[in-house]
Specification:
This protein is α/β, with parallel strands linked by helices and about 450 residues long. It has helices spanning about 15-25, 95-105, 125-140, 155-160, 175-195, 205-215, 225-235, 265-270, 305-310, 335-345, 385-390, 415-430; strands at about 1-10, 30-35, 45, 70, 85, 90, 115, 120, 220, 235-245, 280-285, 290, 330-335, 335, 350-355, 365-375, 375-380, 395-400, 435-440, 445-450.
Length: about 450
């Protein structure tokens, strides 16, 4: 049995989609399963193949080098023979999912192998309405209480799941159950919305909507346990793909500025049905500098021209630091080894994929926050009290920068010496081997240390 978990070691946007796409292709993965989250965050994937490897006269696949912004679709869809599944731990917006399938197909992607677990929960318009109204209520009380939610309804959907009143994708295929349950469900949703001045839910209209979704999604809704069980029996390579990062984990993140699901390797097992004993590798993805979207403390954050330099780094607009789902500018800062080390320890990481190393080209010096200053005392962990985190200051170690030679490098030894020194410093600070250096947006722009 061989299962690999790919998790974010920051606050999201680390480049997990790129790493999942790359290792799925490299290792011939047969299953890629998303284990958490919904349409509230996205993964940018630029798949590609080595054109020199193609037989003479063979055209590359139509998706070669195109930019795909995936929100709910797993990142294994560009690996031939790989089935991509949104697992039981995810929540699915059916309309958004169908629109995403159409976009992927238009760009040349194969959507025939994309499946949905019948245990995944359904994000409804009432969830999006509650999300919006709750954020407005927090703002009305005090702007500082805003959580920076994407208003995609993910939090309220997970809330209903925990309260045992949610709808699962499998329920869409059971008309008799919907006839019995939806009047109660609509009344309960209306009660919750009404508390914040929202409009009631029409049970009949919701029933019709469920029928439309059932017709459109029926071929894709499966009992994912059976596919996982069979893949494990065949000793297939399975990749478990996480959304967001440990900094946004509901238990270990900067609560309450967190997502509503678990983002860690432990949650990967629960959110897919792959047993923890089958997990052989945990790859933690960390950007070579820090970014965050949304509210909450961010110890290494920089502002002004320095932040813009990070935000606009990279060779094209698609690489700039703006949210895939929301388009919001990402907050930027230097690499936070304290938070990354703690995240790696929580996940039991066996290796780190350090992405966007090429984006640091041109800095005279680069920095790593090796510890935090708490009122004159150095600490080497992230406190549980989020208000405390907001009063910490980074203690930096400085390293020489480099001027070029990083872009699209695929061999570790060909990286600039200063870039390799920086990766080694990250490795030493985090206590986990840096297994990959990301050197550009495409699948191929990745330098494995073992190369």
């Amino acid at each position: 049995m061989s299962a690999v978990v790919v998790v974010g070691l920051g606050w999201g946007d680390e480049g997990k989609g790129k790493i999942v796409d790359a290792i799925a292709a490299e290792r011939g993965a047969r299953l890629v399963l998303r284990f958490n989250g919904g349409p509230n965050a996205g993964h940018t994937v630029v798949p590609g193949i080595d054109l020199k490897s193609l037989p003479a006269g063979t055209a590359p696949p139509s998706w070669h080098d195109r930019v795909f912004r995936l929100h709910q679709v797993p990142s294994g869809i560009f690996t031939p023979g790989c089935i991509s599944i949104c697992g039981p731990g995810t929540v699915i917006d059916p309309d958004g999912f169908l629109a995403e399938l159409a976009e992927v197909q238009e760009l040349g992607g194969d959507i025939s192998t994309i499946l949905l677990s019948d245990r995944a929960h359904v994000v409804l318009q009432s969830h999006r309405d509650r999300d919006r109204l709750l954020e407005a209520a927090r703002h009305a009380t005090s702007p500082s209480l805003e959580q920076g939610t994407t208003k995609r309804g993910v939090g309220p959907c997970y809330e209903d799941r925990a309260a045992h009143i949610g709808l699962r994708l499998g329920d869409l295929l059971d008309g008799a159950y919907l006839d019995e349950y939806l009047p109660f469900f609509a009344a309960e949703q209306s009660r919750r919305l009404g508390a914040y001045g929202g409009l009631p839910v029409d049970a009949r209209a919701l029933r019709d909507q469920c029928d439309q979704w059932a017709d459109a999604l029926r071929p894709r809704i499966v009992d994912s346990f059976l596919l996982v069980r069979d893949a494990l029996a065949r000793n297939d390579t399975i990749i478990l793909e996480g959304q967001l990062g440990v900094g946004r984990d509901v238990d270990w993140g900067i609560y309450p500025y967190v997502t509503s699901s678990g983002t860690t390797a432990g949650s990967a097992a629960a959110g897919t049905g792959v047993p923890v004993t089958a997990i052989r590798e945990v790859i933690g993805v960390a950007k070579a500098f820090s970014t965050s979207v949304g509210s909450g403390p961010f110890v290494t954050e920089v502002h002004g021209a320095e932040a813009m330099r990070f935000r606009e780094a990279g060779g094209s607009e698609t690489e700039h630091e703006y949210g895939v789902t929301t388009g919001r500018p990402r907050r930027c800062g230097w690499f936070d080894a304290v938070a990354t080390r703690q995240a790696a320890q929580i996940n039991g990481c066996t290796g780190i994929a350090l992405t966007k190393v090429d984006a640091l080209e041109g800095f005279d010096e680069v920095k790593i926050a090796a510890s935090y200053d708490q009122g004159g005392k150095a600490i080497d962990y992230v406190p549980s009290n989020t208000r405390t985190i907001g009063h910490l200051s980074p203690v930096y170690e400085l390293f020489p920068g480099w001027t070029g030679g990083t872009r699209d490098v695929r061999v570790w030894s060909e990286l600039p010496a200063a870039a390799r020194m920086y990766a080694d410093a990250v490795q030493d600070a985090c206590g986990v081997p840096v297994a990959y250096a990301g050197t550009g947006p495409t699948r191929l722009a990745l330098a494995p240390r073992h190369s």
